[in-house]
Design a protein that fits this description.
- The protein has two domains: 22-147, 3-Layer(aba) Sandwich (Rossmann fold), CATH 3.40.50; 158-216, Winged helix-like DNA-binding domain superfamily/Winged helix DNA-binding domain (Arc Repressor Mutant, subunit A).
- It contains nine helices and five strands; from the N terminus they run E-H-E-H-E-H-E-H-E-H-H-H-H-H.
- It has helices at residues 30-42, 53-57, 79-88, 104-112, 125-156, 161-171, 176-183, 187-201, 206-216; strands at residues 22-26, 46-50, 66-71, 95-99, 117-120.
- Strand 1, helix 1 (30-42) and strand 2 form a beta-alpha-beta unit.
- The radius of gyration is 24 Å and the shape is elongated.
- It starts with 21 loop residues before the first strand and ends with a helix.
């Protein structure tokens, strides 16, 4: 149930606005799907609805800024199994669970699995909207962090093997002369490589270099 797509911009026209955030509704109850679909569209979200987790998994929702609202108990594939399948794909799509038969152990299991919220039916519309907004904010934060890491990896790939060796020494807290001794090169050469590393990575401080290297799991 996609919303009407934005028209393509004509040459020279301003960039087209970004697509609205997507909320994917998964519930085998058609009345619940229709009600949530109407609620989310009323506040400007794009929606897609699915009667089963299997159908939702066939939808490439992890390619969009999106969150999932799903029932826990469904035929074939339940909500928790659905979330596990989403996580296995690496899309990190935030999930909100809802159920008419909730209990404390079930809610604990949902939150330990990384769910944004766990709502018992019937729930207030505002509670659901608050949960969706929190989920989409998490998705934005995660996407920005992933993009930052991807950009950093591309910059890291521009380093020469020797520059990477020097970088590892700096991250370990070694002095330039210590790095030079380990690598068998002149200290001035280490300084030049170190400067080049910082310039290529767009980093000015060693703590930032350490943080970046930790993300790459550099030893």
């Amino acid at each position: 149930m996609d919303g009407t797509p934005f028209a393509r911009s004509a040459p020279g026209a301003p960039d087209e606005p970004p697509a609205p955030s997507l909320v994917v509704i998964v519930d085998d109850d058609p009345l619940v799907r229709a009600s949530l679909d109407s609620l989310f569209r009323s506040v400007g979200f794009e929606t897609r609805t699915h009667a089963s987790a299997r159908a939702a998994l066939a939808d490439r929702i992890d390619e969009r800024l999106a969150c999932v609202v799903t029932d826990v108990r469904m035929p074939e594939i339940g909500g928790f199994e659905f979330q596990s399948a989403l996580n296995a794909r690496g899309g990190d799509v935030p999930v909100i669970f809802m159920t008419g038969h909730g209990d404390i152990p079930m809610s604990v299991r949902a939150m330990k699995a990384g769910a944004v919220d766990f709502l018992s039916k019937p729930f207030r519309d505002q509670d659901m909207l608050d949960a969706v907004n929190a989920a989409l904010e998490r998705a934005r934060t995660d996407r920005a962090a992933n993009q930052e890491l991807s950009d950093a990896r591309q910059l890291y790939e521009t380093l020469t093997p020797r520059e990477r060796d020097v970088m590892k020494g700096v991250v370990r807290g070694l002095l330039n002369k210590q790095i030079a001794g380990e690598l068998g090169i002149a200290e001035i050469t280490v300084k030049l490589h170190r400067s080049s590393v910082m310039r290529k990575l767009g980093i000015r401080r060693v703590p930032d270099l350490v943080r970046l290297a930790d993300q790459f799991r550099e030893d």
